[in-house]
User: Fold ABC transporter permease from Sinomonas atrocyanea.
Amino acid sequence: MVGARVGRAQPPIVVLVQTGTLLGLGPGVIVSVVVLAAAAAAVHRWALGGGWLPPLTASLRAVGQLAVVALLVSQLGRSPWLALGFAALMFAVATATTGRRVDPARWWWAAAPIAAGVLPASAALLATGVLPFEGLALIALVGQQVGGAMTTASLAGRRVSAELAGRRGEVEAAVALGFEWRAARLLVARHTARESLVPPLDQTRTVGTVTLPGAFVGMVLGGASPVDAAIVQLVVLVSLLAVDALAAAVALWLCTARGWGQVRE
Assistant:
């Protein structure tokens, strides 16, 4: 088995080709996936009162999408510039997804909180040499950061918009007392934006005691040492925490200062 280890000449974030895993990848994979998907469909139908199709279609989509992603990453990972192009595509999809959820009329504004989180965090890791300018490393880490920023921006934007709409009377009362519109909105919305950071904060606080996140588990199953996996997971978690905090702050600013999320004066 060939694998990357931490050394002086190679940053700890790099994970090269693994020729084996700790999980069996034989015919049993197909059997287990079919059985588990069928079990999910049965529970969804009989215990939860839903239909058979949602778990089955979700599983089928996962098979198709992962096959395409595996093919793309295997090719794009050979070049850092192609990897950056793929990251840009992920960024565009994340922007459209968040924008449609928060403010469909101005969906492109979602690019601001996502970029505000991802760009500084990625630049810091590149500048310190933790993240090498290599295709697979860029796709793996930047992809996670884009996903985290998308989720946080969606949560913060939607929750802040709902809070401002539901407490509009309080905002108008504060304006009548002499507050600016943005200051009045911040009075009722800032704590709501902070709530979007609860999931990443809890994940970071409980890592290793309650949860073993994907980067750690994936590297260990791929044959990396637990120490190397822990170092990589630490980098991923802390960078995601910074990404999410920046994304939430910019989403709050857009909602309170620019009226994003269909909040109008």
Q: What stands out?
A: The chain has two domains: 25-76, 79-257.
